[in-house]
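$ fold --in a.seq
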Amino acid sequence: MHRFLLIAAFSFAPTASADDPGQRPHPAPSDRYGLLAINDQYYDLSANTGGDFYFWAPGEFANAGLQLPIHDEGVLLSYGRLDGPARSFTIPVESGARALTIFSGIQRKDLVALIRPDGSSVAAGASDAQLQSFRYMTIATIKSPEPGAWRLLLTGVGKYAVTAHVKPGNGGTAPAFQDFDFVQLGGRPGHEGWFPIRRELRKGETIECSAEVAGRVSAVAFTFVTRDDRPIATAPLQAEGDDGEYFGRCVIPNVPFRVAVSGRDETGRPFRRVESGLNSPK
């Protein structure tokens, strides 16, 4: 499984001189619609690797007092564009999670609301929550989050980035998405086996897939999702024994995609994990 790359990306000026090749953060003004100007190259890098893209307003970073969130297991990774109604993101949190971190940023932030499973909003000053609010971003860290479906409501315009991570409970019973590979048969005669492919994926091809999910989990299902975390298709993998290994045949989507796994933890609560790297079939 890919590991998560945290990218603290700034908005950069559109050009850079020879003695300043775009390595320092530069103020980037908003356009006449109130959208923050951003560097698309850095945004795409974050989106393709599962990192956080920081939408800094001009002059904001120097006095931000940012406390960088520590990310663990990815639950939600969504990067896209919002031009219409608000979008609601569902964030399943399993039992025993020690922390939940949520990052949200958009070129024009109108409203961000974080809703607990019981329907109440997370407010500034809550004893279990740290909220960092900026002009174009909101970052939340929740200690010992209540298990269940949390929701993030985002209203605004332009490109956005929303990520959510959990710090699982102690011990070996918590869900853990350890690996997912596209594989092919290989090895010398008498010692054949399944090995990760060493070539690019092809759109529409059918290929064998293998995965490993640890912890006391049930009802495990695998899904291919788009860069903005919308489902494309299921990956019909079946358990191979009782050691957390899964195997099946998958049809490669025609668009870039991530692999997500969902299911139930040992108490029956829903969990979700998503790999950080974006697969781009040719």
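$ fold --in b.seq
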Amino acid sequence: MMEPHIPVLILSLAGIIAISIVSWVMLTAWRDWLALRKMALTVGDDSGMTSPAARIELAALRERVRKLEAIASGVDLLP
């Protein structure tokens, strides 16, 4: 027969793992958002004065942030 403290230990470990995963996702999203803001400040507005490579990188960062926000809110994205 199982000891009474074993299920509590399992639930506690599962909770710690879940909190760790959520924290990691939020930290990654925060870093990407900061990178996006930094790039937007250094690139300037999209009035044609930016290089195509910078615009492509900015679009890739925006897409990554959008996907991370969707993951954080629990929405499934279509490929």
